[in-house]
Write a sequence for this structure.
């Protein structure tokens, strides 16, 4: 059920809404604003207990962000994130296009069973998988490599993507596929020339979703990698902590930098993102 | 005549240096040497890489393969690495932390190296904490002192002197509380800071040996001597010596109280000095004193967490590994890696030089000359990890509500019987 539009409420309720909305928004955004504010303060402010006030030594934004970019491993972590996220996105989406096609178009024994297996993967909490997956990657010699993370992410994300793609393909008009069959087009060509072009909106939406999922992943990054050679940026931010001290200002600046790609992705691809959230759901 | 004397003295010095260097060369050692290090933070990492570089320059025949692992992750990996035989040398810690690996036969006994290399003299202050089951199991490369960092200016304003006895300590603290301040800042959110307080109170009340027996699980926590320690602690708590709500702060978040003068002292490791200075406290405002005596008949024990290198029992290139350990332990190397541009801590080698820094000098002097009781490694290193966790939670609870002492001690005693 959709809520009643605000315009239909009484004037008093509308004014109350307009007055409370900015306040609620502020409360909602405080953690984010705090990180932004901390990222332009100097480390001394934290030792002086000056968390919210104007920094005594002036704003240090330039210094902090320069430290992050030029004098830390941050560029390397960002690059690792790219190297992990993009192949995962391509791999998971490509695989799920194929599985979605197979499960959505063909009727065969066990179709539903296989489909449920894909879906069931989504219901396994990854805390349960933590130890076995870590051991598996270790035994395969993939522990602490980007490849290990990529393979795991592809395997895990394909389940969700398959659900998404299969439902999307189910909703396509079957007549298109049957017409092509009547014309004698081979199944491979049907997939490539008929179904795939129709799936573009789903592919775009899924790419955006998977990109943000994987970029923001922290759990597996910590479980499966640990050196600057392979860690993505979400896990690498903690490298700003010295042995004894947490560098709040640098961590904040690093977090902002790390958050830019998914946020940019969201604003550039907003249409697909929202489509992605609802596509699978409204079926 | 004088110049001749000078030259010959120089020649003699050069000759001793050469022979020293020859020993460090390990008689021309060679071959691959695999070092697993946990010096993963930027400054320690640079130090480790620098040591390898200088060692290979002096020993061109050795090809060092250096693997640096995240410091926290290393704590779970060291056993695998030692058992699989992939390392010749590993980083670890002194004291009881060595026990699991010594008992499992994974570290090599290097007592002979200590004898031959003269380490029994130069590293004497930590020989005790490197010794276990009549063997010596590694060499230390750095440590740092713990003690009370205090606001000299506020003490002067109130007409107080740094205390040396418990009576002075209590009267000081009363004066500070009366002036509307707290005596001590502390942030116990992550528990270990409370462990520091327990270490000192227990070592001063009952002595270093008792403290070691307790952390080794040989004494019940319900022992009256343990209660005596907690009584002293409670005296301070009841006076209002500690800041309020300390359980919500990390150790860093407790610094502002000292910087802003709301609290006058901090029992902490020497790493607290850098942020305090950066926050604007000058060396005139900041002072250091050794934790005061409680029982005059007890030699002071000190916390000085010591980081170490060890040779794996199944090392393939023992000769090169020994040469590397001698190189690490040398006064020259320890002076360099511990100076302000590098680790900024204390060298263990008594012939090493210390940066001209008020607090490093005070610490070096205290640990070399006035730690007759012995050098402890800090509560969470001396006690097994599981026991430390339970115990430090208990310390925090006690600090928040001293009336729960009986309950806390019961929990700790239960944990002791289960864990050891």
């Amino acid at each position: 059920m959709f809520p009643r539009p605000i315009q239909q409420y009484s004037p008093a309720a509308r004014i109350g809404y307009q007055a409370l909305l900015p306040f609620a928004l502020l409360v909602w955004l405080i953690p984010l604003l705090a990180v932004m504010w901390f990222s332009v303060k100097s480390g001394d402010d934290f030792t002086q207990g000056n968390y919210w006030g104007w920094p005594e030594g002036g704003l240090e934004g330039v210094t902090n962000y320069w430290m992050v970019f030029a004098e830390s491993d941050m560029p390397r972590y960002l690059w690792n994130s790219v190297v992990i996220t993009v192949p995962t996105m391509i791999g998971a989406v490509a695989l799920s296009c194929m599985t979605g096609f197979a499960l959505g178009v063909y009727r065969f024994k066990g179709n539903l069973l296989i489909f449920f297996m894909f879906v069931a993967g989504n219901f396994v909490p990854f805390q349960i998988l933590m130890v076995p997956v870590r051991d598996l990657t270790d035994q395969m010699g993939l522990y602490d490599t980007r490849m290990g993370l990529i393979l795991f992410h592809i395997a895990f994300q394909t389940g969700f993507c398959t659900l998404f793609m299969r439902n999307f393909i189910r909703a396509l008009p079957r007549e298109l596929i049957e017409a092509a069959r009547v014309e004698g087009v081979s199944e491979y060509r049907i997939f490539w020339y008929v179904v795939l072009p129709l799936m573009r909106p789903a592919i775009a939406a899924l790419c955006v979703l998977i990109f943000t999922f994987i970029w923001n992943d922290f759990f597996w990054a910590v479980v499966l990698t640990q050196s600057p050679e392979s860690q993505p940026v979400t896990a690498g931010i903690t490298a700003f902590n010295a042995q004894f001290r947490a560098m709040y200002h640098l961590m904040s600046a690093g977090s902002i930098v790390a958050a830019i790609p998914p946020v940019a992705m969201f604003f550039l691809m907003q249409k697909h993102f929202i489509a992605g959230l609802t596509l699978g759901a409204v079926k | 005549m004088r110049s001749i004397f000078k030259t010959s003295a120089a020649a003699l010095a050069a000759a001793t240096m050469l022979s020293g260097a020859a020993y460090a060369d390990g008689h021309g050692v060679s071959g691959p040497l695999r070092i697993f290090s946990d010096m993963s933070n930027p400054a320690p990492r640079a130090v480790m890489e620098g040591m390898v570089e200088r060692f290979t320059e002096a020993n061109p025949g050795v090809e060092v393969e250096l693997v640096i692992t995240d410091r926290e992750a290393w704590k779970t990996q060291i056993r695998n690495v030692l058992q699989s035989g992939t390392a010749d040398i590993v980083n670890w810690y002194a004291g009881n932390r060595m026990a699991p690996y010594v008992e499992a036969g994974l570290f090599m006994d290097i007592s002979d190296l200590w004898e031959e290399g003269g380490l029994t003299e130069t590293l004497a202050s930590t020989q005790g904490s490197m010794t276990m089951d009549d063997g010596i199991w590694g060499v230390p490369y750095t440590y740092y002192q713990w003690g009370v960092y205090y606001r000299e200016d506020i003490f002067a304003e109130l007409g107080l002197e740094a205390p040396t006895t418990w009576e002075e300590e209590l009267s000081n603290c009363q004066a500070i509380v009366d002036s509307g301040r707290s005596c001590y800042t502390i942030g116990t959110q992550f528990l270990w800071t409370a462990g520091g307080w327990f270490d000192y109170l227990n070592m001063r009340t009952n002595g270093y040996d008792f403290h070691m027996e307790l952390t080794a699980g040989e004494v019940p926590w319900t022992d009256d001597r343990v209660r005596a320690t907690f009584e002293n602690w409670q005296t301070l708590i009841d006076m209002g010596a500690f800041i309020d709500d300390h359980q919500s702060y990390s150790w860093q978040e407790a610094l502002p109280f000292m910087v802003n003068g709301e609290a006058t002292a901090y029992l902490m490791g020497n790493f607290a000095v850098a942020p305090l200075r950066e926050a604007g406290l000058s060396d005139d405002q900041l002072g250091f004193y050794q934790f005061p005596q409680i029982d005059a008949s007890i030699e002071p024990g000190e916390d000085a967490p010591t980081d170490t290198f060890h040779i794996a029992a199944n090392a393939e290139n023992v000769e090169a590994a020994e040469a590397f350990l001698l190189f690490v332990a040398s006064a020259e190397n320890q002076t360099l890696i511990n100076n302000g541009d590098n680790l900024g801590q204390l060298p263990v080698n008594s012939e090493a030089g210390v940066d001209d820094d008020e607090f490093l000098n005070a610490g070096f002097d205290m640990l070399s000359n006035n730690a007759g009781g012995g050098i402890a490694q800090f509560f969470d290193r001396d006690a097994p990890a599981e026991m430390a966790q339970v115990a430090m939670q208990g310390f925090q609870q006690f600090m928040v509500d001293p009336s729960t002492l009986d309950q806390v001690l019961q929990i700790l005693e239960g944990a002791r019987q289960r864990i050891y």
About this structure: The first helix of chain A runs from residue 11 to 38.
